[in-house]
Amino acid sequence: MNLTPYVDSLRQEFLAAAEAAGEETLQIAERLVPALDSAVRLTLLHALSTAADEISRELAPGSVEVRLRGLDPGFAVTRPSPDPGYAQVGDGGYAPVDDGGAEQLIGDGDGATARINFRPPEHLKERIEEAAGREGLSVNAWLVRAVAATLSSGAKHGERKAPSGTRHWNGWVR
User: How far apart are CA 141 and CA 143, in angstroms?
Assistant: First the structure.
């Protein structure tokens, strides 16, 4: 992006305003304009960087960055990647990747998938990612396996098992 037209436009406006104030003011303004060039460029770069940050927040996990080449800024756009359990197919669509056998745990085997939003706390997300990495699975495949294993273990809704190896005693001892 070429900032020169914007800097030149501001320079012309500044000189036009100084000319309206008189010849002496115009001469002072003409001496100040070269010094303002770099300050104006820095201010424009700051505005572009702030805008890129705001756009990145909306695109997360994608991002927009301002990069300088010489005096001219450019934009680098990183598109958000799809869910790690999905791969691009055809012209822009996404389909689930092999889930490492999680379908077998579920038992229906029809291959149909559904999407849900899962928003764990950051510390739990990190532990999930580590566990998936240890098993060589995507986070999606690991979560499918974990949920399927939990549901197939026979645990009923609201039922809690007592921790194994612990016993609770109530009463008096003499």
Answer: 5
148 and 102 in contact (C-beta within 8 Å)?
Answer: yes
Contacts of 95 (CB under 8 A, 6+ apart): 86, 87, 89
Length of the chain in residues, anyone?
174
Q: What is the pLDDT along the chain (174 residues), one digit of tens a residue?
A: 888 898 899 999 989 998 999 999 989 999 998 888 888 888 999 999 888 888 887 776 678 888 888 878 888 887 765 555 555 444 444 445 554 444 445 555 555 667 788 888 889 989 998 888 888 888 888 888 888 888 776 655 555 555 555 565 566 655
> Does the predicted TM-score (pTM) go above 0.85?
no
Examine residue 121 and say whether the peptide bond preceding it is cis (omega within 30 degrees of 0).
no
8 Å CB contact between 41 and 49: no
Q: How far apart are CA 96 and CA 82, in angstroms?
A: 10
Rg of the chain over all Cα atoms, to the nearest angstrom = 31
Q: Which residues contact 109 (CB under 8 A, 6 or more apart)?
A: 103
Name the 3-class secondary structure at 86: strand
